Amino acid sequence: MDHGKIIVSSDRFQLTLLRLCHQIFENHLDTEDLCIVGIQERGVLLAERLRDNLIQMTGKQSFKYGMLDITFYRDDFRRRDTPIKASSTHIDFLVENKNVILVDDVLYTGRTVHAAMAALQDFGRPRKIEMLCMVDRRFNRHFPIKADYFGIAVDAVDEAYVSVEWQQKQGVDQVLLFSGKE
Amino acid sequence: MSQSQISTKHLLGIKYITKEDIELIFKTASEFKDVINRPIKKVPSLRDVTVANVFFENSTRTRISFELAERRLSADVVNFAASSSSVSKGETLLDTVNNILAMKVDMVVMRHPAPGAHHFLAKHIDANIINAGDGTHEHPTQALLDAYSIQEKLGSVEGKNVLIVGDILHSRVALSNIFCLKKLGANVMVCGPSTLIPRYIESLGVIVEHDIRKALQWCDVANVLRIQLERQDIKYIPSLREYAMYFGINKKLLESVNKDIIIMHPGPINRGVELTSDVADSGQSIILDQVENGVAVRMAVLYLLAGKRM
Predict the structure, then answer these.
(1) Which CATH superfamily includes the segment(s) B140-286?
(2) pTM
(3) ipTM for the assembly
């Protein structure tokens, strides 16, 4: 059985999270119009951590924070063997004229982000949408989409599989690379 | 892990789906309920799907509810009412539907006066079929939205006492509700004049009661049905007035029971017959919630069946 190779260890994971927060803060000194939106389900885990770190870093009480489910917006519906189970969307603010950072764990083909941008339009017209991911698999894109912030860039063959594990879920923060999907 | 796929290609009746299917429909419906309460009530899921609403019987709310559900999923919609069609010129059901399908329709929502018409169609055509009522047999989406409304109001359906009052004999809503509620673990009682309670209905696992006061004392939820005079070819009750006296629910009767019963009605209401206005419009009534949930539940059914095609 392939146990995967650790490409980001727990120590480095924390540093990466902090670095991402600094980069966000650097680009959005005025955090008033900033919204962090995690894509269900795994993007939400990263978005939560970013939000908590940003609160610590800036001393602000809260940030506009939402969870976006893109199930009903996917372009592969009716092309997959089974439909995907929907999760909840919780965005209790309008994104009209806001700077939105979409958050996902892995940016791969770009189809998820493409669907997320369509879904986000239903909550208003954002001034700007940026993309943040923990892992950027740069050479496997199907759409002209890029990450504005990323934890680590992974240049792996199509068959390879990258998994981000979380303290909240698996008990440890790390990124693993597998040679093939099991 | 709970399932992510419905077990059937068609929704012909509640009898033919599983408890897990119902739970999946409810879970999906609650996400769609969020969608229809947003400023932009539409999602693009079914943008490459064409749905035909084929109604061989009159319908206002069910057809509008289905049509809204389809449009909010971005499907293309064609409506077909039998009264203004070639059916009145003698065309058979299969020919009518095959003609519609030849125009590349993916899903058919049909209401038909003959019980089992949908089963016949399912054997002969390739599209997904959703039963929007077949005669006195089943009306599955109504039962789903009723049970969903109970779950939303009371947290769950399991273990709850649900009373169905009225014309059980002619009611497809009653039969589908009994199947659905029993699958979800509720206790079901039916109440009405003995002429309007089918014989052997106990075999479905329901309790029969003819005294409305006793029935109300027993239940947590009362789903009140309309007396369907249009389906009654002979006299089953002496008069509507007498029915209202013995089985109609009014404020006084409800207060005398001294417990908070939830009142439901699939509509259209005959005010003053099965329900008086002060009950239908009271805080205990969730009749308009049922209507709202109807769109979300139908969106869930369409979405899950459409995902099943390939």
Answers:
(1) Aspartate/ornithine carbamoyltransferase (3.40.50.1370)
(2) 0.88
(3) 0.76
